[in-house]
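User: Here's a chain of 596 residues. Predict its fold as tokens.
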Amino acid sequence: MGQGATGAASTRTADMFTATRTSTHRGHDDLLTAGLGLDGLRTAMPPPYLDPARPRPEELRRRAIWSSWRGIADLAPGGGFGRLHGATAAVPGREFHALATLPGARHPHRVMLQLPDDFDPRRPRLLVTASSGSRGIYGSIAVASAWGLPRGWAVAHTDKGAGSDYFDLDTGTGCLSDGTRAQAGDGELAFVPDLAGTAGHAVRGVAVKHAHSRDNPEADWGRHVRQAAEFALRALEEAFPEHGPFTFDATRIVAVGISNAGGAVLRAAEAGDGPWLDAVVAGEPNVYVDAPGARCLYDYATEAALLMPCAQLHPQDLPGSLMAALAAPHLAGLCAQLAAAGLVDGSHPARQARSAHERLVAGGWTAPALRAGALSTGFDMWRALAVTYASAYGRYGVDEHPCGYRFAAQNLDLSPRPASAVERAAWWSEASGLPPGPGVGIVDPSPAPPGLGVDGLRRLRALWEGADADARRVQAGIAATRARLPRERLPVVVVHGIDDGLIPIAFSSAPYVEMARAAGRDVRFWQVRNAQHFDSFLGLPELAARYVPLLPYLHAALDRVAAFLEGAAALPGDALIEATPRLPGQRLEAWNLAIP
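Assistant: Prediction complete.
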């Protein structure tokens, strides 16, 4: 249990939590799957709304849980979920929700405690987590809740200042605590953008919390995780007043997360807030350190947004995809624009594509990372990251993007239009927090073909490479996200796929581990061959035959850490795991995973 952290959280932070509510989930409903079970989660059709324009809170919650599971886990039959790893049996219990505000922050972040009925208040165990990516409050349910709730652990969540609380600028509506929509002023909304910089002209479209809060939430990821734990202790006192006070000293607390949440729990591991954590498990973490080989997400995302689509035209170096083949004429135009700008060499598409690949390799991209990273080009992931993070790092508000991008519902020709009531109602449950997504797209300032958006991408890249006022503003925001060393004697396990193409291991986990170990910190490192970033992609047979899921390794690491904290086993050692993808038509077996 945490050594030296003092005091009950409710005494210190009660005034930082607002819009509190509690709900009970038993019978036809539960904490883990909202009553859907594994079969319901696998169903391609989402849980229905009685009135799609005005869904009820319980309907929104059920669909948010369905969407969060499907966005993270490989649930396909044959993939091993529910057989080799993971559980979806009903877990009855209660949820405690609130909006939490960090000192100095303009906007709150969501926090939630999931408390199973079999939680033992005499032996309190808390798993604290953050949503991966920019997802809403249920964004870590397949990661943390799936492991913790069936074992009787309480699970504390935060959306870490991002999430799907989109504000519709055309109607002036946002999200209440329960996900339903209301006018600004008709209740405490989770996000209302500051429109002070837009005085004198009407604003249209959609404001996204991650991009438009002016808080640079990534700089505070560790504080978000800690505040979620503080809220959890406060909620436990409310649930079990006869067993309180619940303090960091008296509660077993482990932090876990993947992707952005992996970076968040590593930030929470730092020594600044005292020794309140007992262990940390971070999967494929987006973590940026000041160390050789390290690159920040914005740097390599803007590089990939420019170069990787062009590189796909040279399959000898970077295996192409059906999407790339269909888009070949467009990609050839993009390559030509890159060549005209001096970003690639050559006078014809094949040579330009090879040049794009060579420049990516020179930047540190490995062959496995490039192979998997190409998957993200078809989903417009690189541009989505660059557009949103540029706004967040620079603390820009609505209609202030330094490269002219906006978010809005769009017509088929990509022109912006007002969102419909049905689209607005679905945002909270289905949006990833990072447009484009359901009902919201990126309005590009330079959409004229050929080479859709190249001018905008070049401006985004210039924010990293340039020295003007906007570039310095964005670079200062990125510098504020650098991770520091974990606390001394804190057990940390990092799990990362060697084939990760979104958060390449060479730019993130590897330099973090090397930095921490050079300072004498206790960090264990599992590197998994043939694992990439998105387990949910493995529902596609072609990818299931190429990759294994990463989530089983994260849950196995949690098993080892929990046993260590109970004195029943040693911490896991380092491992280079030679995972073997399953053959087409075969199901995944334990030997494929080779979990140490």
